[in-house]
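Re: beginner question about structure tokens

> Can someone show what the tokenized structure looks like for a real chain? I only ever see the sequence side.

Sure, here's an example I had lying around. Input first:
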Amino acid sequence: MRIFVANMPFATREEALAQLFYSYGDVERIQLMTERETGHSRGFGFVEMPDAIQAQAAIATFQRI
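And the corresponding structure tokens:
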């Protein structure tokens, strides 16, 4: 399941985002979107988790924040 994650601080690193989601299950891939020309973060990205139930649990938790 591919999860859209928005409103992240521009300093967020892939490792930090992965750590948040690892507490809910396996993470296959993290993709932070960056500006093409500068390489700076755009403040959003995607997390891919193979188990939909674990992904839904993470989504439910983070929606409350």
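Each token stands for a local structural state, so reading them left to right follows the chain. The chain has one domain: 2-63.
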